[in-house]
Amino acid sequence: MQTLPNPPRGNGTLPLSKRLKLDTHNAHQRVDEAIMALSPFASLEGYRRFLQVQYWFQQQTTALYHQPSLNDWLERLSERCRYAAVVQDCQDLNLDDATLKPSPLAPPPIPSHAAAVGWLYVSEGSNLGAAFLLKYADQLGLSVNFGARHLAPSDSGRGLHWRRFTAQLDALPLSAKQATEALHGARDAFQYVKDLTAIFAPL
């Protein structure tokens, strides 16, 4: 029997993690630019602005990390949550509850578990890219033990931590509709972070 060549793989047949990366590339780049516009490593004042954005974002995603049904989908998800580390960092730098709460912007709704997966993809990806941020934070006297705990790698290392997460994403038996919901969720998460950074934009 003649072996037919495999058809070209469109975005719809890529693993979910690859689809999320491709679909949100531009949004991710815009968020990176918005974060750096805060001058987060020029001074402790700039870093506090960055930390506030991190706090508000992690505040919105922490419930997802602890949702039992999502932990059924993604093994040991709750152990990945960095909200407690962000809270400690804020305490280190004297950011009090009056400054931080409540979040100044209500996040867009997360209508489904699949959409939540997109938000978690953005949250987990931010830790993957935190290695160079931690180096800059060190120049301000911050470390994984003071002020920059939420930038710390996991015990297994950033690369392996991320690969395990994306492997779980790619193994989810999502329908085409659910995959689309995950993409929308990731876009919403990136836009929410960008909107939070805009709070600190000069008038």
UniProtKB/TrEMBL annotation:
InterPro entries, alphabetized: Haem_Oase-like (IPR016053), Haem_Oase-like_multi-hlx (IPR016084)
Pfam families: Heme_oxygenase
Superkingdom of the organism of origin: Bacteria
Protein known as: Biliverdin-producing heme oxygenase
